[in-house]
Amino acid sequence: MGIAVEMNFETTVVWTEKFPGRLHCQNGQAIDYSPPVELQGMFGTLTPEDAFVGAANMCYQIVFEYVSKDLGMKLIEYKCRGVGDLEVVEGVKKFVKITLYPEMKFAPGSKTSNLEKAISTTKRKCLVTNSMDLVLEVVPKVL
């Protein structure tokens, strides 16, 4: 049986009368944010939608690197486009699917025959995507 580890993550949003607002993260980062341009937001700032899809993309990469290493694949390059699909479900907009398109390069001698296992294990272990009520699809490309 695993040991439960309690962790809390905290952010603070500061907004005064107009955008951009500022998101302060517990890890020390501070980022300007606004709604998307399509919703009268500003260009060039983080949007909640970008942060949502980006959180899935970043977490998947981090977990994938650890999982790959354990399966004998040394990841040396990784670039991934993430696409979040919005739909109206029961009268409310929500993300229903995120598709990740990772392009990966492994060190010579890596056991790339373990790629599918690494992808499925990462899906199972990724905290952020497991916390989302949506379908996660991964379309990998090895360089």
Descriptors:
143 residues, alpha/beta, N-terminal domain of TfIIb, GMP Synthetase, Chain A, domain 3, 2 domains, 4-stranded mixed beta sheet, 3-stranded antiparallel beta sheet, 3 helices, 7 strands, 38% strand
Secondary-structure topology with pairs:
Elements: E1 11-16, E2 18-25, E3 30-33, H1 48-70, E4 75-89, E5 92-106, H2 115-125, H3 127-130, E6 135-138, E7 141-142
Parallel strand pairs: 5-6, 5-7
Antiparallel strand pairs: 1-2, 2-3, 4-5
Helix pairs in contact: 1-2
Backbone structural class: alpha/beta
CATH topology of the largest domain: GMP Synthetase, Chain A, domain 3
The number of distinct structural domains comes to 2
Q: What is the element string, with H for helices and E for strands?
A: EEEHEEHHEE
CATH class wording of the largest domain:
Alpha Beta
Distance between the termini: 39 Å
Query: CATH homologous superfamily of the largest domain?
Result: K homology (KH) domain
The low-confidence parts are: none
The assigned CATH architecture of the largest domain is: 2-Layer Sandwich
How big is the Rg?
A: 18 Å
Average pLDDT over all residues: 95
Helix share, percent? 25-40%
Count of runs of 4 or more consecutive helical residues: 3
User: Beta fraction of the residues?
Assistant: 35-45%
Largest sheet: 4 strands, mixed
